[in-house]
Amino acid sequence: MFRTLGATVLLLKISLTIAYRPVFIYHGILTGADSMGHLVNRIQEACVHPGTVVYNFGRFGGWASLINAWHQVQAAHDNLKLVCDLHPDEGINMIGYSQGGLLGRAVLQIYPDHCVKTFISLSSPQAGQFGDDFLHLIFPSLVARTAYELFYSRVGQDTSVGNYWNDPHHPDLYEQYSIFLPYVNNQLPSVNSTQYREALLRLNRMVLIGGPDDGVITPWQSSHFSFFDQKYNVLPLEESVIYTEDWIGLKTLQESGRLHIIERQHVRHYQWHRTNDVIDDVIMPYLD
């Protein structure tokens, strides 16, 4: 009996050792948990990841995804903490798609002892958003050139889009009115600046995924923390101040081999999480 029990315990330990970490998924704007169903199924059914536990964040679907970013981040933090409490030893991996990648990254920054080992940002506006194509999906009557008049106001800052709208022609108004992105990027100092950086440095890996055919994230390089200057030139990450001054630890992550920047062509924004070969090539290798 005791030999059988010992063998059972040994097998259990082996299975836990080779099991893949649970995955927490954060959906994009104007969608919800249901939209991530294909990705969830692919992770759980793939031959290399059978049965992986997946937590598909279910709050703020549809129009609720336009609620103020800080409100969403705090609620997602509470959910993530519950998940981390269930997996204190092995930790988890996290995937944030589109807006969910930006808000998910902020969740980690306000959670100093989070359990996330690998964070995957899947076509997310990490350096902000500025462009008509994206804007017209949500606010058909607005144009990028004048959208700052709404977004850089108290009313505009009640919306998640306003919170990461980054107009390169009005950097002064961006810093004056934006209550979210310049703070989580440590462009503007706050009492939490040190924590925001150190929380990201807890990661084993940060994976930034995007591509030139995305069609929604503008510029698409924002998925890699690059952005427009005032002449619409996109400054490479390594030449940007957020990197050179290491505001949130990107330089440290890269120099230690923990920052992975992936560019994939011929993928539209809504295909990243719904196309098997894309999922298999750019997501699955990082789920350990």
UniProtKB/TrEMBL annotation:
SUPFAM superfamilies for the chain: alpha/beta-Hydrolases (SSF53474)
Catalytic function, reaction form: S-hexadecanoyl-N-acetylcysteamine + H2O = N-acetylcysteamine + hexadecanoate + H(+)
Gene3D superfamilies from the UniProt entry: alpha/beta hydrolase (3.40.50.1820)
Keywords: Disulfide bond, Glycoprotein, Hydrolase, Lysosome, Signal
InterPro entries reported for this sequence: AB_hydrolase_fold, Palm_thioest
Gene Ontology cellular-component terms listed: extracellular region; lysosome
EC main group: hydrolase
Gene Ontology MF terms: palmitoyl hydrolase activity; thiolester hydrolase activity
Cellular localisation: Lysosome
EC number(s) stated in the UniProt entry for this protein: 3.1.2.2
Pfam families attached to this UniProt entry: Palm_thioest (PF02089)
UniProt family annotation: Belongs to the palmitoyl-protein thioesterase family.
Function: Catalyzes the cleavage of thioester bonds from S-palmitoyl-CoA or S-palmitoyl-N-acetylcysteamine (unbranched structures) but does not have activity against palmitoylcysteine or palmitoylated proteins, branched structures or bulky head groups. Conversely, hydrolyzes both long and short chain fatty acyl-CoA substrate.
Protein name (Swiss-Prot/TrEMBL): palmitoyl-CoA hydrolase
Species: Anopheles gambiae
